[in-house]
Amino acid sequence: MSPPSDAEESAPPEAGAVLIDVTRGPALESRHRGAAAVVDGRGKIVAAWGDVERAVFPRSAIKPLQALVVIECGAADAFKLGDVELALASASHSGEPKHVDAVTAWLGRIGLGIADLECGAHAPYAAAAAEALMRAGRKPTPAHNNCSGKHAGMLSAARHKGEPVGGYISFDHPAQARWMKTVGEMCGVELGRAPRATDGCSIPTLAIPLRAIAHGMARLATQQGLDAERSAAAKRVLAAVAKRPDMVSGTGRFATVVMEATQGRILLKGGAEGVYCAALPGLGLGVALKIDDGAARASEVAIAAILRRLGALDDASWRALAPVCRPTLTNWNGIEVGQIRAGPGWLDESAQ
Amino acid sequence: MSPPSDAEESAPPEAGAVLIDVTRGPALESRHRGAAAVVDGRGKIVAAWGDVERAVFPRSAIKPLQALVVIECGAADAFKLGDVELALASASHSGEPKHVDAVTAWLGRIGLGIADLECGAHAPYAAAAAEALMRAGRKPTPAHNNCSGKHAGMLSAARHKGEPVGGYISFDHPAQARWMKTVGEMCGVELGRAPRATDGCSIPTLAIPLRAIAHGMARLATQQGLDAERSAAAKRVLAAVAKRPDMVSGTGRFATVVMEATQGRILLKGGAEGVYCAALPGLGLGVALKIDDGAARASEVAIAAILRRLGALDDASWRALAPVCRPTLTNWNGIEVGQIRAGPGWLDESAQ
């Protein structure tokens, strides 16, 4: 094993803020720490927990920002991409038949096929879809990969620009340079020297301060400081996600359920290793959080608690969304054994 | 949502010790904190990280201590239970055909069947076994439940004692009272007033200080302070696990792989929510750890690092076991993207 690099050495030793408690019966069983930033369109911090200047890999949570590229480069209009495609470009989808079919049709529209996707294959997140594949004796394809819509977007831009498509996932391909420029501008950071690693779907991922990621989401929500072209692109991404939240995640999953219930007032996007982002057009805010330990279960409940605190989820929504926002843990016999919920002091008792 | 109870309020607000780092490329992506205790047969702390007096739910990690009951009550001899059954009584097995077949045969031997198991059903942990069930259009049964061996052990004791078997998972059934007495004695704690909750398999789980759990494991390893009958039972559990580590976990899984490689010198048992225990007869030590956030990935790498520190894994084993003790993370294309490894300062650079 190689010795720690400079980047690791510079990682802060301090523990994050207590965000999420997992209870079992009367006791606290596990606890998740992390950092979260709520930022307005000008970049002003409205609320913060933990170290929000720490650079984190946003992973899939910035896909809605990456989707801007598909519109701005002209590919969306040239290939007549609609809400379904733009929602899929912003998605970590469940690999349900509707997701896979839409991505496959989209690839056909740009003269490509599933074999051109370089994201790798994995079984659908949707249990029913995964089971159906198994029962049919079929293997998952790259179209089932939760990132296949983002990749179809990158391929659309490359086709529209007349670039080679093979190797589009490489750091040196214009498809990657494009989103790095756009995301850097949205987040207000120079990404040229950002710590770089490889994402699950093999494109690069760049470490960005949490506050800056939240700022990017706030700009997406408010279009503050954006030129006319990017403002239009931002509105188009927001509208597509609002119209087809089922394409951004999947049936019954946290982001889709919350976005459907709030009818376009909230854009939600998670990323691997406990990252979650929200864009709130009505409140003019962006949110980004990272769970220190990378747990998805905590990132969902934490972003829900922040939405509640900010008033983005009203009393009725908060009650209706309890099963995904404050999940009850059940065991193999269906007995309620515990809860996942905001840590002490995060929410008023009435808000819990 | 009900207000926090006293037990929750008393949970320590302090963050645990940094135990495990998850890297991606050159950077730290996620970090796991927790507590760990290494204790000798007299209960003396040999090494500790974090708050080892904190009571944690040991979950499945104390199954080898619960298995003592099956022997001591006379059921093991009466029903001629061998290494396979005693290893299964100590197991969180993968639901492979060999596990399910052995549990089913065992139940038959005590005049019962799968329908008498009250642990609930879940798909086998072993992907191949789960897939085979699906392809065959079959549903998992309680025999596939990872705890089915522990339950068969409890049923064996109840049958041997002539107790009713229905409802054996209830706190008030003698099957539960038996293990609570034995585990309390092994750990040197009075469990009568311990915080109690319901485990995944529906039996009670009791919160025990981490140091005391480690002491229980040390007593299992050393038989120090145990009477002749319990000493014999401890030796029999150790021997069964050493002989059939494949029955305690499953093919390719961390505990089985490490126990097979170390040929009976290490007993390893994990539990849900990031608990891990080890009994080390050669060194005369017991180990117990809990990852604050409940992550299994961290608990495995942390117990491995402790085994390395203690010298329980020699240079050759440490090198050979790298794939499970210091796992490389790969993405959907099989590209190496990061590592899970001991946090800074935990191990000498040479030991890493």
Structural account:
Two copies of one chain form a homodimer. In chain A, the strands form three sheets. In chain A, strands 1, 2, 3, 8, 9, 10, 11 and 12 form an eight-stranded antiparallel β-sheet that branches. Chain A has 352 residues and is of the alpha+beta class. Chain A has 15 helices and twelve strands. In chain A, helix 2 packs parallel to helix 7 and helix 8 crosses helix 9.
Structural descriptors:
eight-stranded antiparallel beta sheet, alpha+beta, globular, disordered N terminus, homodimer, two-stranded antiparallel sheet, 18% strand, 352 residues
The overall pLDDT of chain A, averaged over residues, is: 94
**How can the largest sheet of chain A be summarized?**
8 strands, antiparallel
Uncertain residue ranges of chain A? 1-12
Shape annotation of chain A: globular
